[in-house]
Amino acid sequence: MHPNPVFRSDDRALLESLIDEIGFGMIFAQTPDGPRVAHVPIVSTGDGAIRFHLSNGNALAKHIASGPALAVINGPDAYVSPRWYPAKGAVPTWNYVTLELEGPVRRMESEGLEALLEAIAEREEGRIAEGEAYTSADVPPEHWSKLIRAITGFELEVRAWRPTFKLSQNKSVEERSAVADALEAQGSLALASLMRGLAK
What we know:
Elements: H1 12-22, E1 24-31, E2 34-41, E3 43-44, E4 49-55, E5 68-80, E6 93-107, H2 110-125, H3 141-150, E7 151-157, E8 160-166, H4 173-185, H5 189-198
Antiparallel strand pairs: 1-2, 1-5, 3-4, 4-7, 5-6, 6-7, 6-8
Helix pairs in contact: 4-5
Protein name: FMN-binding negative transcriptional regulator
Pfam families: FMN_bind_2
């Protein structure tokens, strides 16, 4: 989390929407062989926890439920050039959105894992414009059963929410507007939109 409090947000609905919109992140935890990270789809329960799954062969799978873990979900980011500010004297920086979630992890039962897989598929299939949505019913039962046995679902109880929305809030309205315009022109539409919506 960025040390400057101006880049933080206590808007829980905003943080939940970030998890839902991005839907993918990194899980960090300590193992006997040192720290490890896994890249996973993530689903929020909406009541203070997130769920994810790991292949049973993943280095974290055997150890992650034995202590705290850290989840990181990264939103849009982009380099900010000093030439975009109306006045000279600025230095390069980076605007970005990220959310750190920390807490204990527990293993899920197979029913919870199947519900998690369904939730991920439903969310992502709903974002595809054309064609009939995939469901687990499309998979032969024996193949589905084999898949379920090869992975484990986990739930992280979020005890610390550490968001960073670094969107030039420490700059003047004129400077923020100029940077947002420049980022939009460079193709960073999501970041520019967030700057205009949040950095007021």
